[in-house]
Design brief:
Length: 372
């Protein structure tokens, strides 16, 4: 049987009664779109973060896109972010009409190199978009300082960092607004698509609500365009409410898998295997468990014989893909991003990953690396 890098079926088996009850609750509620479950989830998700306001949207890409629009980002503006991210981060920026500007990442954590941001700021820069990639947060203090100095907005991309902490603060509470995805693989995942934008600013939240609902302020009355239909689905919201109550358990489960990998694989450092490291002040939630080795492709090939299927997050830096060629970044322009993209790969990671499969992964990786 193949060991997958991610699988929701063990979780579904364990939570089936509650999840089916969530669906039944919505079907019997008499309100299938923007009903009681979306409102309740918005309030509960905001409360989890100690923030006041949350708007549910249909996916994480639109959370980033509408979030930026609610911050006033549009055509002619520049948004500073990274090329080592899920492509949707950048698809969303382009979708607003703004131009993405990339800075390189750091060798030790694959996150935005905040020391490069100041030099990337131009008179057209409108917002900074740090991505809390893989489950730990970007250094926010220097970004906040730059934003204050230059009058920029900050949107956190928290699609991979639900529940992660940075010097005690939760991801999504350290900026003007934060975008979340509830795509099924995420740390808080729906059984389909979903997203949300968190903020403490009532004007931003009101703008989010108009942007997701045809630009309407009240039913049938549009007050602004362009706008979208980007509502969070009622069924997904009710499922997310149930799962939000278990978010801290999911995170604990991910950390337990990470500890076991560290114990089992730590000594392979002398064989060139680099395990994830957590920055001082960060509490990692391990959305993915990204390791690195110069012989990455040979290792992945060899692990197929053990029936272990691995993933690469991400094989192509955004600026090297043909869909972003118009941005004009030459190969070699982001050297750390490009080099690490050839070495990183992800080991299976999800809270319900059975211990025997964790052991299978550990012994297979050990055998393959010792035989290289
Ligand atoms: C998943 C993800 C998104 C997009 O979310 P969707 O719900 O798939 O649209 C955006 N940014 C990052 C960093 C992601 O991991």
């Amino acid at each position: 049987m193949t060991t997958y890098v991610w699988d929701y079926l063990p979780e579904y088996e364990a939570e089936r009664a509650d999840l089916l009850d969530a669906v039944e609750t919505v079907f019997r509620s008499g309100k299938l779109v923007l009903g009681p479950s979306v409102s309740a989830f918005e309030q509960e998700f905001a409360a989890y973060h100690g923030r006041s306001l949350c708007t549910g949207v249909d996916n994480g890409t639109n959370a980033v896109k509408l979030g930026l629009e609610a911050l006033g980002v549009g055509a002619g503006d520049e948004v500073i972010t990274v090329s080592n991210t899920a492509a949707p981060t950048v698809v969303a920026i382009v979708g607003t009409g703004a131009t993405p500007v990339f800075v390189d990442i750091r060798e030790q954590d694959y996150l935005m190199d905040v020391d490069q941001v100041a030099a990337a700021i131009t008179p057209r820069t409108k917002a900074l978009l740090p991505v809390h990639l893989y489950g730990q947060c970007v250094d926010m203090a220097p970004l906040r300082e730059l934003a204050a100095q230059h009058g920029l907005a900050i949107l956190e991309d928290c699609a991979q960092a639900h529940g992660a902490r940075h010097h005690g603060e939760l991801a999504g509470t350290m900026s003007d607004a934060a975008a979340f995805s509830f795509y099924p693989t995420k740390v808080l995942g729906a059984y389909g698509d979903g997203g949300a934008v968190l903020t403490a600013d009532a004007a931003i939240d009101e703008q989010m609500r108009r942007l997701r609902y045809y630009g309407m302020e009240k039913t049938y009355y549009v007050v602004q365009t362009p706008a979208h239909n980007a509502r969070l689905d009622e069924i997904q919201a009710e499922i997310l409410r149930r799962k939000l109550g278990r978010l801290d358990e999911y995170i604990a489960g991910r950390r337990a898998v990470a500890r076991r990998y560290e114990e089992g694989l730590g000594e392979l450092a002398e064989r060139g295997l680099v395990l994830p490291s957590t920055n001082p002040g960060n509490e990692h939630v391990y959305y993915v468990y990204v390791v690195r080795h110069p012989e990455r492709d040979r290792i992945i090939e060899a692990l197929k014989q053990y029936d272990i299927s691995l993933n690469i997050s991400y094989p192509w830096p955004v600026h090297t893909m043909s869909g972003f060629a118009h941005l004009g970044y030459a190969k070699g322009s982001l050297p750390v991003t490009e080099r690490l993209a050839e070495q990183i790969f992800s080991l299976p990671m999800y809270p319900a990953l059975p211990e025997d499969l964790q052991d299978k992964v550990i012994s297979a990786v050990r055998e393959v690396l010792l035989a290289l």
